[in-house]
């Protein structure tokens, strides 16, 4: 509904998961009357902030153990190499290995990869790193066509061939499957962490990449232009930053979400798409929920409902300040025509 995205590329798959994990941990802590909760996030990442802000908002009296900030712990384990060695010596299964020296974090939304060889921002990610999506070069030579149905901004149905799914979780899984098979949703970025460091991350986000594309396409058809402009300039940007920075359980996030729900009342309709070798494409969209788009008004072959002559006054009014600006630049000896 919000089209959340961080720094124009990251769809916030890890940041989305942390409040959910924290909420479940606090529920368990309360059930068993625990005074402490703990997390394994490092002292250089965002997750320590996300977890702990969530813990303290959900249960202000809770105490937190963060091993990566305990002096005795970091004296023994200087980094991931020491931990991998410890895990091997104690038969503890972990996904990272000396041959695959990067960390992996997987959930229904995405799979993220960082650290190890990825810390060099110019190092090409090994082909075997990408766990979730096919290499676009190995994806099918035939495109996959499907449709995504929305009701008030939320996915209500996904249809692929003869298969139709209406459950929200299963619909998202189906979009994941389509994206995975066609190599959709890979990004490799350097982002600005909340704590002030830059970090390189690789992300597999197939289903959400498709869902966001479809949602944006439908909004273009049914959402008021000025409402969308305000949402994009303030709401989406701010909500994304709040989520990334661990401020999910905050009054400002609740405030912003109320406006998100309001602007989605007419976002009901169907978007047809195609997935092919690393990309998803919109084929068309339709909706009965809004009269903002008129094929007749927009047609270059019809003058019904909209007179081109009406734009003369509109342009003249819009040009008033621009003419004044141009006149001033000429007066200052800096005519715009020569700039």
What does this structure look like?
With 339 residues, the protein is α+β, with helices and mostly antiparallel strands. The protein is built from eleven helices and eleven strands. It has helices at 13-31, 47-58, 71-76, 80-89, 168-181, 206-222, 225-244, 251-263, 295-298, 310-318, 320-331, and strands spanning 36-38, 63-65, 103-106, 111-114, 144-151, 154-160, 163-165, 186-192, 198-204, 269-276, 279-286. The strands form three sheets. It has a five-stranded antiparallel beta sheet with strand order 7-6-5-10-11, with helices on one face. A four-stranded antiparallel beta sheet has the order 3-4-9-8, with no helix packed on it. Strand 3 and strand 4 form a beta hairpin. Helix 5 crosses helix 6. The longest helix has 20 residues, at 225-244. It is globular, with a radius of gyration of 25 Å. The mean pLDDT is 94. Residues 2-93 form the Arginosuccinate synthase-like N-terminal domain. Residues 121-143 are annotated as: Disordered. Belongs to the argininosuccinate synthase family. Type 1 subfamily. Keywords: Amino-acid biosynthesis, Arginine biosynthesis, ATP-binding, Ligase, Nucleotide-binding. Residues 121-140 have a biased composition (Basic and acidic residues).
What's the tally of helices? 11
Q: Note the gap between the termini.
A: 43 Å
Mean pLDDT: 94
SSE succession: HEHEHHEEEEEHEEHHHEEHHH
Q: Tell me the structural class.
A: alpha+beta
Q: Taking Cα atoms only, what radius of gyration do you get, to the nearest Å?
A: 25 Å
Counted beta strands: 11
């Amino acid at each position: 509904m919000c089209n959340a995205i961080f720094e124009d590329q990251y769809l916030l798959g890890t940041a989305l998961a942390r409040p959910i994990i924290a909420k479940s941990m606090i529920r368990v802590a309360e059930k068993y009357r625990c005074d402490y909760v703990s997390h394994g996030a490092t002292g250089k990442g965002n997750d320590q902030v996300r977890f702990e802000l969530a813990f303290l908002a959900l249960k202000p009296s809770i105490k937190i153990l963060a091993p990566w900030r305990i002096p005795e712990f970091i004296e023994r384990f200087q980094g991931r190499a020491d931990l991998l060695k410890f895990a091997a010596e104690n038969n503890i299964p972990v996904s990272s290995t000396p041959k695959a020296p990067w960390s992996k974090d997987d959930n229904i939304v995405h799979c993220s990869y960082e650290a190890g060889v990825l810390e060099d921002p110019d190092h090409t990610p090994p082909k075997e790193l990408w766990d979730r999506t096919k290499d676009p070069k190995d994806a099918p030579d035939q495109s996959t066509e499907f449709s995504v149905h929305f009701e008030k901004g939320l996915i209500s149905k996904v249809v692929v061939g003869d298969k139709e799914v209406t459950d929200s979780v299963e619909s998202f899984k189906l979009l994941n499957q389509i994206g995975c098979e066609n190599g959709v949703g890979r990004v490799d970025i350097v982002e600005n962490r909340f704590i002030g460091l830059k970090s390189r991350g690789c992300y597999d986000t197939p289903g959400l990449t498709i869902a966001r594309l479809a949602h944006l396409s439908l909004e273009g058809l049914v959402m008021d232009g000025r409402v969308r402009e305000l949402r994009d300039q303030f709401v989406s940007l701010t909500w994304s930053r709040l989520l990334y920075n661990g401020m999910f359980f905050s009054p400002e996030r609740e405030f912003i979400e109320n406006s998100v729900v309001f602007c989605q009342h007419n976002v009901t309709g169907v978007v047809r798409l195609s997935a092919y070798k690393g990309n998803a494409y919109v084929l068309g969209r339709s909706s009965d929920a809004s009269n903002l788009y008129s094929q007749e008004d927009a047609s270059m072959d019809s003058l019904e409902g909209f007179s081109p002559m009406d734009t003369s006054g509109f342009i003249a009014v819009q040009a008033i300040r621009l003419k004044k600006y141009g006149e001033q630049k000429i007066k200052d000896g800096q005519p715009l025509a020569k700039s």
